[in-house]
Amino acid sequence: MSEEMEQWIQEMLRVSDADDRMTDKQIKIINAAVETFSAKGFAGSSTSEIAQKAGVAEGTIFRHYKTKKDLLISIVAPTMAKLIAPFVLKDFNKVLHSNYPNYEDFLRAVIRNRLEFVRNNLPIIKIMLHEIPFHAELQTQFKEHVGKKVFQRVKEIVEHFQKEEQIVSVPSTTVIRHAISVIIGFFLARFLLLPELDWNEEQEINYSIDFIMHGLAPRNK
Amino acid sequence: MSEEMEQWIQEMLRVSDADDRMTDKQIKIINAAVETFSAKGFAGSSTSEIAQKAGVAEGTIFRHYKTKKDLLISIVAPTMAKLIAPFVLKDFNKVLHSNYPNYEDFLRAVIRNRLEFVRNNLPIIKIMLHEIPFHAELQTQFKEHVGKKVFQRVKEIVEHFQKEEQIVSVPSTTVIRHAISVIIGFFLARFLLLPELDWNEEQEINYSIDFIMHGLAPRNK
Amino acid sequence: MSEEMEQWIQEMLRVSDADDRMTDKQIKIINAAVETFSAKGFAGSSTSEIAQKAGVAEGTIFRHYKTKKDLLISIVAPTMAKLIAPFVLKDFNKVLHSNYPNYEDFLRAVIRNRLEFVRNNLPIIKIMLHEIPFHAELQTQFKEHVGKKVFQRVKEIVEHFQKEEQIVSVPSTTVIRHAISVIIGFFLARFLLLPELDWNEEQEINYSIDFIMHGLAPRNK
Amino acid sequence: MSEEMEQWIQEMLRVSDADDRMTDKQIKIINAAVETFSAKGFAGSSTSEIAQKAGVAEGTIFRHYKTKKDLLISIVAPTMAKLIAPFVLKDFNKVLHSNYPNYEDFLRAVIRNRLEFVRNNLPIIKIMLHEIPFHAELQTQFKEHVGKKVFQRVKEIVEHFQKEEQIVSVPSTTVIRHAISVIIGFFLARFLLLPELDWNEEQEINYSIDFIMHGLAPRNK
DNA sequence: AATGAATGAGGATTCATTCAT
DNA sequence: CATGAATGAATCCTCATTCAT
Predict the structure, then answer these.
(1) CB–CB of A181 and B177 under 8 A?
(2) Domains in chain B and their CATH numbers?
(3) Main-chain phi, psi angles of A219, to 5 degrees
(4) Which entry of A2, B32, C15, D22 is 20 to 30 Å from A156 by CA?
């Protein structure tokens, strides 16, 4: 792997791990809330249970977070930002201007990186998945950030490689959907559907990349 | 398309549409519950709201469904069964013994058929997605039916074509995951993420099949 | 025992066993209600449970008994009447005019007879005990029948024997209370507090009569 | 009366009056609950009525008592304990080793003392009587404490006096039942059946003791 | 007579949130 | 800052009773 890319990966890691300053009790509350929301869903969790699990008084939660929903937002929003952080790095599509003969290594680096991120933030990712449909604020944030910024960046890359005839000539939205489906499908299987299996992650990543590469390869008539 | 396959598709349709006999009020309750659960989630919906929406007394709900959860189950369970019904038809993998040169038409038939089913049962499908993680009964049913029966059938087909060297030599579980990811990815985008777009469904199905076919094609070194 | 007394006992039995005419369903309802009220109390029993136990529709109960309370009254009232029936027989205090040297045999006959009655109507007796304090109608009936009629009869007898100096010269109300306490104390222990014990009823009756006789015997200074 | 006995009576009083520390609202809730349960029975009382009577929000009840039944137990259990407290004082049967020629004074002291206790706790005593049959926890406590501990103590005394031939030679269980029946019979008449009467309590106690003493006196053939 | 679906008031209990300490 | 008692609206659910069939 090129040195350039390694630097980029370091950047990606740095960006994801920025942590806000919080008091000891706040951290306990957040942890308890994450655990509870993740296990029972937002609507199925009670603030009293969270307080108990956090070892604080019921009132303490509301000193830090005006409402229960506030608590949810302040858990999900930063993680959603971190989840897509690498894609909005200003040098994300540096790959375009490098002299890579292909995008395979790049794809592999991104997958590995996000795999780690998901692994380390699994409960919050679950909360995101479950709650986005029910909370306008989260939907807005999701559509804005993921739907626009990320999509825009990825689209540029895809269309670049299409111009170079390294990717089949199919609407770029479709190309993106296919690729992302395969990757997210892997993440879901790995962490949500069959986490108990004995996964060979490197191999599966390779299979997935291989599948995507062949699926997207230009058609030779 | 062969006549045989057309018959099978008819069979698939027939199986999916069997409808239970219910009283007028029961239907109203179910419809109101589907609408509400789908919009706010199970835990976020109140029985009083459902009753009001259904135009019945709150007590009437509990005459027909012992608990609120009962109401959920009796909505989700049959639809989950219908969702996978085609896969457990005894002649589902008839394709194996036919003389198709490939499995493309078969795949297209299944996708089209399930696309229609999802379209016609969208709110319930949403409920399924949201609630399965929180209800042991639904999880059990899902793992049992989808995880075991459907997977088994599909695996047979995949391994059959692998033996005939029409599919790349990769673990069948991985093959299945890739194909399903692409299809479900399409369904999610079509109905949940970007339903407001002006979709050319036939074309997208073709792209997806094309992507899968190339992604799964045997590698020629 | 005298022949006269035996006749009286026969009369007592006859009076207690008069049974009202009821339809088959009515009998089932009453039995179910007795069972339920006795086990859970009136307020703790639901008409739906009674209907279920009786094998009739919920509405059927209300065809025969206007309200749930009606059902209670129509169970308790007749049994309360039967419970005191012997005491209001017009020849109850025939004992006064017989030439008995004492009242022992008479007391024994009454105790035995009421013991049988209680044994055969235990659940209803329980209901009476529990519900009289909470239902004005039952209280009225109880005070009227038991408190007045029975008390009047017994008082005459007691005062008769006091005049004959066979009973200690103590207020007749106190005498009656003492005797009844001992008898009812026995019934309660026998059937409610320690029903599982292996009771020698005849012997206990003798002990109780003996205790009463000595307790009430005229004091010899 | 001996000085020794007077001391014992003081001890008895002290033990009965120990009062738990409770907040102002808790006291109001308990008082309202006692009043309501006593008047309508446990099952016939609603928590909303109790809250209203106590002048607190309904939720407040459940902050202090997890369930309505909890509220009942926390009312009845301590009173049941206090009711029998004198009998389990370690010097209760001190009477055995004193040089009393008889047990009359002792019996009178106990009756007077418990009469006062019942007078001061009448509503709770009523609740006890009504609810013990319907609540396993109360039954257990009753059988354990009253049935075992009290009975054991009293039995020792009775058998002691039987050995000394001051009590008739009849099974001690029967002796106890007779004595207790007379005393409880008096209490019930005094407070529950005919509370409106103008009772001369001291005289009735004397009559009852007299009745018991004669009823239990050794038989002279 | 009998049914049982339907009712809506009322049941116990939970909840997010407030506020005096 | 933190507490936890207090709130009262809202929750799910049960109930006695009615009424069309």
Answers:
(1) no
(2) 3-216 (1.10.357.10)
(3) -80, 130
(4) A2
